[in-house]
Amino acid sequence: MNIGITCYPTVGGSGAVATELGKQLARRGHSVHFVSYRLPFRLDELTGNIYFHEVDVTSYSLFEYPPHELALAAKMAEVSRENRLDVLHVHYAIPHAIAGFLAQQMLGKDAPKLVTTLHGTDITLVGQDRSFFEITRFGILRSDGVSAVSDFLKKMTVDEFDVDRRIDVIHNFVDFSLYERRATPRERAAFAPGGEKVLLHVSNFRPVKRVLDVVRILGRVVREVPAVLLMVGEGPERASAHALARRLGVHDRVKFLGRHDRIEEIMSLADVFLLPSELESFGLSALEAMAAGVPVVGSDAGGLPEVVKHAETGFLLPVGDIEGMAARTIEILKDDEHRRCLGQAARARAASLFNADRIVTQYERLYERTLGQNANGRG
Ligand code: GMT
User: Among 77, 232, 283, 355, which is least packed by CB within 10 angstroms?
Assistant: First the structure.
């Protein structure tokens, strides 16, 4: 198939999933065309049948807000026409589903089918905003195929947007071939020179991630177990997290490592992964930790319980329960055997349910089914 993929190229779960999916589809022999305003952050192989088409957004003094969506739609139409795309797969409803719809209108009967994957904040935050609600709903209804990354997100989409249409649940996935290698003691020593335990958090540091809770958990943990905290990512809450670490007197134990594309290398350094988010439609970073054999301590919110099995592959506690999360983290860190068991179970769960082979096939089926539909969306 000839498949177009549009996603946010910046660091974030939806861009990571879209890019990994494109790479996997290319390995299966499909031609994959990424259309975005920048090279997606994990797209490190532009070989063979993977192509990148950059959207140019011209700035003009009249444009206080340059019309990126129109430039994107025009580029999607051009790439579709020139490469005879069968499917345009957009990740994150706003604005990509709308740009995809516009591209279809421009192309008429030769238009590719439009598949939209809902990732989370496009529904839980942005889509709930009064100014975006109607247009998000429109994008969902007008797509030829729609998937959501968890049962939770599907239910929330149906309930909140009152949409009566098929939505496939296709979970996030990981490429297991990347998670074979464990960090060496020397690599660990670079971050934990005194043999401290290593806590890890990876995110875009937005308020929904509750990164201050992560620092507070470390503050409790170090009272009982020598530990360091690695914070990977960039975002608006970084400065507050830094300030809080200083206030709690743990700043020399927190290392802000910035962005990292090869997340699997960092994951294998950790003893416990912390994800105390307010809401998480799936929690790709938790899955990546599990693939590396690292137990997760996080919040019992959104789709996270579909990923982390409480008491088997980690622990999920109510949002904001810092004491509880710290207690579970300490429990894991104090008992190496328990940590190993949780880590092994985490890896096994990730391998059986969320491996790339299984999930990419589900996307292929969605494309095939969508291509088999007529204009009324019937097969
Ligand atoms: O986590 C974010 O805020 C980034 C966001 C994105 O779309 O880039 O991530 C969402 O999509 C991921 C991939 O499907 C999910 O694993 C994350 O759980 C989801 N984030 C939230 O729901 C907060």
Answer: 355
pLDDT of residue 376: 46
pLDDT of res. 216: 98
User: Which two structure tokens, joined as six digits, stand for 236?
Assistant: 């608006």
Ligand 1: residue of 121, 171, 208 to mutate (most ligand atoms within 8 A of CB) is 121
In whole angstroms, give the CA distance from residue 298 to residue 302: 11
Mean of per-residue pLDDT scores for the chain: 94
pLDDT score at 374 = 62
Both 90 and 112 in a single domain? yes
Say yes or no to pLDDT of 344 above 80.
yes
Q: Domain range spanning residue 53?
A: 2-173+355-371
In testing the pocket of ligand 1, which one of 5, 36, 119 has its CB within 8 Å of the most ligand atoms?
119
pLDDT > 60? residue 148: yes
Question: Which residue type sits at 80?
Answer: S
Residue 376 lies in a domain: no
Q: How confident is the model at residue 164 (pLDDT cuts 50, 70, 90)?
A: very high
What is the average pLDDT across 330-356? 97
Asked if 222 and 326 sit in the same domain, the reply is yes
CA of 244 to the centre of ligand 1 (A): 25
pLDDT mean over 318-329? 98
Task: Count the domains in the chain.
Answer: 2
Edge-to-edge strands, sheet with 168-169: 50-54, 31-36, 2-6, 87-91, 113-118, 145-148, 168-169
User: How far apart are alpha carbons 277 and 332 in whole angstroms?
Assistant: 20
208: Cβ below 6 Å to ligand 1?
yes
Instruction: Please report, for the domain that includes residue 22, its CATH number.
Output: 3.40.50.2000
**Do 344 and 236 belong to one domain?**
yes
| Cβ–ligand 1 contact at 285 (below 6 Å) | no
Span from the CA of 233 to the centroid of ligand 1 (angstroms)? 14
The pLDDT value given to residue 128: 80
276 Cα distance to chain centroid: 15
| Ligand 1 atom closest to residue 281's alpha carbon, by position in its atom list | 22
Ligand 1 atom at minimal distance to the Cα of residue 12: 8
pLDDT, position 378:
46
Note whether residue 12 is domain-resident.
yes
36 lines ligand 1 (CB under 6 A): no
In this structure, is residue 377 part of a structural domain?
A: no
For residue 90, being part of any structural domain is answered with yes
Is the CB of 283 inside a 6 Å radius of any atom of ligand 1? yes
